[in-house]
Design a protein that fits this description.
It is built from 11 helices and 11 strands. With about 375 residues, it is of the alpha/beta class. β7, α7 and β8 form a beta-alpha-beta unit. α3 crosses α4 and α10 runs antiparallel to α11. Bound molecules: adenosine-5'-triphosphate. Adenosine-5'-triphosphate binds next to α4.
Length: about 375
């Protein structure tokens, strides 16, 4: 049977464990040996106890648990050739030549570079006597499949990333909690929503919580947003709409058309000074990444994990690495490097404030 290594890397996200569980079980079902590589790339570089064979039992009771039970890390060593050389040595020691990387675009970029560099790493290991020559035949190429674990939903190619639905639930719970106290005191609340350059979470949460206003990076307000916000609220109250509270969601990366950051405290100041409201700020931060995985994320991650193993079984030395994506309701395989490049392009376009192009690129597969 083949040997598959699975690791989680970059920021954690709810549902990663469901993916790990599916990979272990589908892998074993197909006669493979599956290995946990703990603490992301750091565990791959360090080896030792970080690489452990998975058992059916060890992947029990984790489908619901948020975060990642096999640990995640950012790893500077893996960005260096010597780090990747050590990682390759450890994988070859265990006979692992199939990898499933669960992470964001950085982790998947790293995985793709590793795959392309693999033959030269193997040569160097042989030249330096770090692996024995008889191992080469079984280790001539490395297969990689990526899964996107990220609460931001900022990856091009997939409609949803693993974790984003659970994060939306967390935000919704927080907004519902804030609402009761906000309404009681006739207070406004401005919430900062984590999600880097991606407005998916504040947009989705704003719609489902009747937010008064939502600030997202991809669609900055035109003109003077301070005045527009005050006008909107004044009009609402003039039209007879009685509101005991206003909830305003501000994306972590919210900006105006000129690229200046819009922060919660800016919005609070406008409402306090101009609307004479009592307004509080709440930054949700890592609360969004915590707690159990939603049913949707468990199903999504399970389906993606199963497909990842099947993709590895189909891989040949010449097939490009793929990333498992959701397209509508279908699970599909997409070209890993293309998807990563588009995702990086979006970040570039955001920097250049080419917002229409960002929306177009995100929407296109
Ligand atoms: P998140 O979306 O949560 O930030 P991410 O996977 O994008 O997740 P990164 O910090 O960018 O997070 O990457 C995680 C790890 O992947 C890095 O710490 C590094 O070890 C590895 N990595 C990233 N980019 C590269 C690269 N170009 N070459 C080699 N390794 C890389």
């Amino acid at each position: 049977g083949q040997k598959i290594g699975v690791f989680t890397s970059g920021g954690d996200a709810q549902g990663m464990n469901a993916a790990v569980r599916a990979i272990v079980r589908v892998g074993m079902f197909l006669g493979c040996k599956v290995f946990y590589i703990k603490e992301g790339y750091q565990g791959m570089v360090d080896g030792g106890d970080n690489i452990q064979e998975a058992t059916w039992q060890s992947s029990s009771n984790i489908i619901n648990v948020g975060g990642t039970v096999i640990g995640s890390a950012r790893c500077m060593d893996f960005k260096e050739r010597w780090g990747r050389l050590k990682a390759a040595q450890n994988l070859i020691y265990w006979g692992i030549t199939n990898l499933i990387a669960i992470g964001g675009d950085g982790s998947l970029t790293g995985a793709n570079c590793f795959r392309l560099e693999w033959p030269s790493l193997v040569r160097e290991l042989v030249d330096k006597d770090m692996i024995s020559k008889d191992k080469i035949a079984q280790c001539s190429h490395l297969n990689i499949v990526g899964l996107v674990g990220s609460i931001d939903n900022d990856f091009c190619g997939t409609d949803m990333t693993i974790g984003v639905d659970s994060a939306l639930h967390r935000i919704q719970e927080a907004v519902d909690s804030i609402m009761t106290t906000a309404v009681s005191h006739k207070r406004g609340f401005v919430l900062e929503i984590m999600g880097r350059n991606c407005g998916y979470l504040p947009l989705a949460a704003g719609i489902s919580s009747e937010a008064t206003a939502i600030f997202i990076p991809e669609d900055p307000p035109v003109g003077d947003w301070r005045q527009a916000l005050c006008d909107q609220m004044t009009e609402k109250s003039k039209s007879g709409e009685v509101r005991r509270t206003h909830i305003i969601l501000v994306a972590e990366g919210a900006i105006d058309r000129e690229g200046n950051a819009i922060k919660c405290y800016d919005v609070q100041k406008v409402l306090t000074d101009q609307m004479k409201m009592d307004v509080r700020v709440t930054v949700l931060g890592h609360v969004q990444r915590g707690g159990n995985a939603s049913a949707f994320d468990r199903l999504l991650a399970t389906r993606m994990g199963a497909e990842a193993v099947l993709a590895l079984m189909d891989a040949t030395p010449t097939t490009p690495a793929c990333v498992i994506c959701l397209d509508g309701s279908d699970i599909v395989r997409r070209h890993l490097l293309n998807a990563v490049q588009k995702t990086k392009k979006v970040v570039e376009l955001m920097g250049e404030r080419r917002f229409e192009d960002v929306v177009q690129l995100r929407g296109r597969q």
